[in-house]
Amino acid sequence: MTGRTDYVARIREKIGTDLLMLHAVSVFVFDAHGHFLMAQQQGDENWITIGGAVEIDETPADAVVREFWEETGALVRPTRVLGVFGGPDFRFRYPNGDQVAYTTVAFAAELISGEPKADGRELRTLDWFDPARLDGLLMRAGMRKLVTLSLKGRSSSAGFEPATWRPGRS
């Protein structure tokens, strides 16, 4: 992760905590029962998909494999794009004040080796969830939107929010 870390650190030296646009991936791995894997980060009760920022010169598919490996110790193979997400619900302010806006590509992936386990550094826990039982699950608005539309994209075309922009409107 050195490439992205150095890149972001160099930009942060120039812009401080101001808003920074980053590209990210989100990984959906399903078990034999159709449940998918989600995680909780250290110090946060919200559930998230496994994933993270795409590094300089890295393809999104490679970011899927790398992020899943770094966070769970298991190897995956991306199989399909489930959706593309961004906008106000995908802005985040980190505890240190850094602001980011993510454009995230959600991928389905198959587990090809290893048993996923939380890395204990970034992620504290992993669990499998039934897509039909997400209502009570604690998630931020953007993550809920990403999960809901990605799960729809699993059985049809890729999910994304419909365009609302029109000429003459800002």
Name the features:
170 residues; alpha+beta; three-stranded antiparallel sheet
Describe the protein:
- The structure is a single chain.
- The protein has 170 residues and is α+β, with helices and mostly antiparallel strands.
- The chain has a single domain (2-155), classed as Nucleoside Triphosphate Pyrophosphohydrolase.
- Helix content is 25%, strand content 34%.
- The protein contains three helices and eight strands.
- The strands form two sheets. Strands 1, 4, 5, 6 and 7 form a five-stranded mixed β-sheet that branches.
- Strand 6 (91-93) and strand 7 form a beta hairpin.
- The protein is globular, with a radius of gyration of 16 Å.
- The chain starts with a helix and ends in a 15-residue tail after the last helix.
